[in-house]
Design brief:
Elements lengths: L5 H14 L4 H8 L3 H8 L7 H11 L3 H8 L4 H15 L5 H17 L19 H9 L4
Helix pairs in contact: 2-3, 2-4, 4-5, 5-6
Length: about 140
């Protein structure tokens, strides 16, 4: 985990706030933080918690993970992985079993490409069902 880079975070927050055409006071109210505290964050004088960053991100309608990266709480690869997983899990057009299969395949490719440490074959992806692979093969063969 990287060290906090609050100066860069503050500048980025200010840019995002201005792009959203919000005053400091409006953003502070929408995020549920005090105006002086938000001002200190923007000036790089305070290190906000992940919870505060999440509230600010919600008020700005931007990704909390992006703010975590800017603050040094999360690295870029972790953010990309979390966002990919979130998109898969939020897709209403596929069922839970299909989501789990997709996540297993995703994890497999990441391991193959050296982005995730190797797991034992007995380890399952988080939330995975041991019957998923067999079920996926059955779905591919409608005659079984």
């Amino acid at each position: 985990m990287a060290s906090l880079n609050v100066g860069n975070l503050g500048e980025y927050l200010r840019e995002q706030r201005r792009a959203a055409q919000l005053s400091l006071r409006q953003l502070a109210e929408a995020a549920g933080v005090s105006n002086p505290y938000l001002s200190q964050i923007e000036r790089g004088l305070r290190k906000p918690s992940a919870e505060v960053l999440q509230q600010v991100a919600k008020a700005l309608r931007i990704s909390a993970e992006t703010l975590y990266v800017r603050a040094g709480i999360l690295d870029e690869r972790e953010r990309e992985e979390l966002e990919t997983r979130a998109v898969i899990l939020a897709d209403p057009s596929i069922n839970e079993r299909q989501k789990n299969v997709l996540l297993q395949i995703y994890d497999s490719f990441r391991r193959e490409n050296g982005f995730v440490p190797e797991q034992d074959e007995t380890d399952e992806a988080p939330g995975a069902d041991k019957t998923l692979k067999a079920d996926a093969r059955k779905d591919d063969n409608p005659h079984s």
